[in-house]
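It would be a great kindness if you could assist me with a short task in structural biology. The matter concerns a single protein, recorded as an amino acid sequence and a row of backbone structure tokens. Could you please explain, in whatever detail you think fit, how the structure tokens follow from the sequence? Thank you for your consideration; the sequence and its tokens are set out here:
___
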Amino acid sequence: MLTIKSSEIVDLLPDAIVAVDGDGRVVHWSSAAEALLGYRSDEAIGRDYVALVVPPDRVQEQGLATQDVWQAGFAVYEAVRRRKDGSLVYVDITSRKGHLGGIEVVLSSEKDVTRLKVLRSTKLLRSRFGDLIESMPDAIVMADGTGHIVLVNRHAEEMFKYSPGALVGELLEVLLPQNVREGHVRHRSQYFAEPRVRSMGAGLDLRGRRADGSEFPVEISLSPLRTDEGVLVVSAIRDIADRRKAEQRFRGLLESAPDAIVIVDPAGSVVLVNTQTESLFGYSRDELLGKRIELLLPERYRGRHLAHRDGFFTDPRVRAMGAGSDLFGRRKDGTEFPVEISLSPIETEDGVLALSAIRDATARQEAERALRLSDESFRYLFYNSPLPMWVYDATTLKFVEVNELAIALYGYSRNEFLSMTLADVRLEGQSEGGRREETMNGSAEFIHVTDSRHRLKDGTVIDTEKFEHDIVFDGKSGRLALIIDVTEKKEIERQLIQSQKMEVVGQLTGGVAHDFNNILTIILGNVEALDEEGTFAADHKRRIEAIANATHRAANLTRQLLAFSRKQILRPRPTDVNDLVASTGDLLRRTLGEQIEVEAFLADDLWLTEVDTSQLQTTLINLCVNARDAMPEGGRLIVRTSNGVLGAACAARHPGVEVGDYVLLSVTDTGTGMAPEIARRAFEPFFTTKATGKGTGLGLSMVYGFIKQSKGHIELDSAAGSGTTVSIYLRRSAAAPVGATAGDASMPVPRGTERILVVEDNDDVRDNTVDQLASLGYQVVSASDGASALTAMESAAKAFDLLLTDVIMPGMGGRRLADEVNSRWPATRVLFMSGYSGDALILDDALEPGVDLLAKPFRKIDLAQAVRGVLDRSAGQ
């Protein structure tokens, strides 16, 4: 039996020395043990040795070795140990039974032999498998149970850019990006616990890391290899960067294809569609992926289509589908339409897929039916067609005949047309249509030519769609063209896209303004509190005023953002626009300067409109200042009012406009005007033609948002060098005009003594509001959410007089809280507060119409008047 005399001598030994008592607890841990296994002595002493460093799959093996030592007094064996960082090492262990401090222990000397074992495995494996792995097309990496690389082939070294032999002995994680290495150690341990053949990273973006730090996408398959040295894992690695690029190019080609493209597997499930498929059939991509292709066919065709599909996969080849028969597609809404389909097989790693190119054959079939009519019928249809038509020579492109509608649309007489060619009406520089015309000679198909732009006799440019077909006219070969003027359609599409874009930006700016309002509420409340103390020196007083002024300017900017996003709080009332223009006149003349001549033409008997008068005045000033900036050398500015009606035609051109009576307010200048591309973007937020620092780009977008929120309509008419007119249409009101409302900050601040419960999830806003109310004499209790507020209500000896609550809060929102309070404490009045507008909150179903709402940011007088108004109205009732 060996007895330890001096722990200092033990700690000088190069191998790790560990002593474990009869319960398996560590009683000694040398310095070399700390270096080998990563745990400090104070972390290891007293811990269960097996749980600390023995991998779970080696526990039984370690138990047998320990039992041998206790029974025989001595044992030598090889084992695997788990370090503190999770990595594994191979160790040679010599264990003896001995005594330490009067207790019987197992004393073990543990030597790191990982490198030796790796080199031994490498030598053995290279002799057995070297030629085999070098002949494989993939990169091959073999690793032992501790995750150390024991063998690689030349492909692996080249793929990961390591010199020969440099990878042997390294951990597998050296081949992975830094951010996934820690997680991979756990995955590796789990694999060795249950080794089997499988793919790694299926469905994931798996990446390798080269020696130079660059990364690339890979596919990996894993296989266990059982040897005398233990289980190894063989990784076959493939660089798929080129394949990813090819897939991206393939998807790009699909999206740019003019036809609807649908790809299905042998089971008939849709695996890929393009945008044209969504447009043609009315389904979204998500609604089609994974569904049966028969979904796109009328029900009467679905049964027999299964046989056709099976036949294609039995003999996959390029062919047309439905040749010689009427084939129809079925849209999501149930409507059917004739189609042409061509099928092509695609070879993939998962087997053969079928690519279907689908085209709406409605136009072609209609054209073919028309061309099958007799010459007399053709001439009748040609000259009495409801659409413009012409016939031209396919070689010279010279017009041969035109109908009356073509003459009326283009403005040329018949004789003028017959002396011209297609080049005379086609917009200069547009040659695509010409190429199509040249390549269509001899074709029996009806060609649909889109996106052609033509110039009329008066210079106007229109967008057209053309349907063309080869015909024989008066015994000569020619080409028949049917023309559709789609200018208005294109304009509506452009306006819709613009509206959607501005709606997205509006939602973003509205959210920013809402959060900013909370910040401004805190700043404004604290500035007012400091100002009320009145004990500051003059320079400090000036600084406080500067902060207050900056806060008010920030609040104005927030209102601009809310105006654009249509979430500002509006206070509409019956308004005489003539009175507003007249009262703004002096201010405008002072603002615009003497170089601008201002004239007003105000209509007699002008209708009233329901609008926020203050915002409309700000809008008028904005428009006039913009007009002044467009006349740097001076000029004439005209403000007009009139009554008018917006009819169905206007409503059709401008989505969202309602038919009815409107009050018109327009501002016209004689300035520089705008080019069409500038005018189209004039109402976009942050768009400006002014120099940096000379404008925010919010002026006209604020006007646009205010008018739209007021359910009005706005138009801009401008041309470079010819000035600009902005016309605002406001809905007519039958109510009588009302005077201005009170609310001046110079008025006495109303006070009170009632009991108020303040509910606000923002700590700073809540504390500021409580302080302001307390300074006004009220008895105030606060809560951070709806649940806490109900607890406060239940524990109060007497019901609160007023609940002042934020609308949007986590958990129970303000509306739910108010409903609960109204049902249980009906005498308690409710006042809401929010950084959003009442209209926006009502639209989002967060509030009901007609509730009392205090807008953030608010001044102390705003808070005092709102609270007093609700309480006094309650007392009056």
Remarks:
- The chain has 29 helices and 35 strands.
